[in-house]
Amino acid sequence: MLDTTLIVLCAGNSSRFALEPKKQWLRCGDEPLWLYVTKKLMGYQDFSKVIIVAHKDELKYMQYFTDEVEFVAGGDERQHSMANGLQNVTSKYVMVTDVARSCIPKTVIDDLMNHRGNADCIVPYLLISDTVVYEDTTINRDQIKLIQTPQLSSTEKLKSALSQDAIFTDDSSAIKSIGGTVYYVKGSSESIKLTFGEELSKVTCLPKPSKDYFVGTGLDIHPFEDGKQMVLGGVKIKSDFGFKAHSDGDVLIHSLIDALLGACGAGDIGEFFPDTDQKYKNADSTLLLKEIVAFIKNVGFKIINVDLTILAQVPKINPYKLEMKKSLSKLLSLPMQHINIKATTGEELGFVGRKEGVVVQSVANLKYFDWSE
């Protein structure tokens, strides 16, 4: 079916989702939900193109997972994300689905495709069996339809409908607003939408997360700079010099950030906080670490433990170890016993031994957030 493009919407913030990761990053085996759902749908039909609409902060990371699809940055609203995806669509038809609709059976996709010539938008729906009351008035439940996704639309009609200023909750209501036609096909009770997190107990199609562990290492070096406050692990160190750097130069936190990013395969600190960006001039590195920790949790990981080695001739590290552990415990939301800090000197060898700078090596261990527990 080479005249239909598939768009999978994955750009949301999961603001109503009760679990720590964003729903699109729940792991199914080793695959994030967005990739698992997309591959499943690609196995049902031969689409001319598949477009993933991603959150702008996760777009680059998503591209590390597959080269079989196109990626587009989403917008603030579902409709804006859909409009962004449609800019890359040239096929006659477009099928749009939400990644939260994770267990769509093949029969629904086949019905949508088989009826695509019947109207401008083909929509799956469910009937309801319960009595419905609206503003104290009982409504005929036979006239109620619960609308699902995916929906299959005329690309031209959908683009035209979304060019309006109004916000619509789904494709069919947008198309109706410009006088387009809608045809309804039977949906499926299996197509449960993950909204609050509690729906996971009803979902049977998703494999549980892999039990694998992931190790990342980080290494950072900074020379000294006279007259600057020294900060290590978010702790102010008594010293006549600090670290020469674009930010506050917290070499320990910079090394730790690289270890965390390495464990989840997301690149390095420079990709997130380039030293060419004036926004990070003299930046507080604890704020950078908080941002990375939030990212790691959003994309479906849990931090298990970290181990850090500080190589410094000066200053003396031991008096500050406990304070550093307390600082990192808060920043990482980890028990102090899961944070280890070691310190050694350069034995007067090299630039460290000459008291010119400090090196920190870090190791971080992560695992997938287990939504099945």
Structural overview:
It is a single chain. The protein is α/β, with parallel strands linked by helices and 373 residues long. It has 2 domains: 4-202, Alpha-Beta Complex (Spore Coat Polysaccharide Biosynthesis Protein SpsA, Chain A), CATH 3.90.550.10; 213-368, 60s Ribosomal Protein L30, Chain: A. The chain has 11 helices and 19 strands. The strands form 5 sheets. Strands 1, 4, 5, 6, 7, 10, 11 and 12 form an 8-stranded mixed β-sheet that branches. Strand 2 (27-28) and strand 3 form a beta hairpin. Helix 5 packs across helix 6. The protein starts with a strand and ends in a 5-residue tail after the last strand.
Largest sheet: 8 strands, mixed
The CATH first-level class of the largest domain comes to Alpha Beta
**What's the mean pLDDT score?**
96
Q: Please work out how many helical segments DSSP would assign.
A: 11
H/E element sequence: EEEHEHEHEHEEEEEHHEEEEEHHHEHEHE
Total discrete domains: 2
Q: In terms of structural class, how would the helical and strand content be classed? A: alpha/beta
**Bulk shape:** elongated
Let me know the number of strands: 19
Question: From the alpha-carbon coordinates, what is the Rg to the nearest angstrom?
Answer: 26 Å
SSE diagram, text form:
Blueprint lengths: L3 E7 L16 E2 L2 E2 H12 L4 E6 L4 H4 L7 E4 L4 H9 L6 E6 L7 H9 L6 E6 L5 E3 L2 E3 L6 E2 L3 E4 H8 L8 H7 L4 E5 L26 E14 L3 E3 L2 E3 L3 E3 L7 H13 L5 H4 L12 H14 L2 E11 L9 H12 L6 E6 L5 H4 L3 E12 L5
Parallel strand pairs: 1-4, 1-6, 4-5, 7-12, 17-18
Antiparallel strand pairs: 2-3, 6-11, 7-10, 7-11, 8-9, 13-16, 13-19, 14-15, 17-19
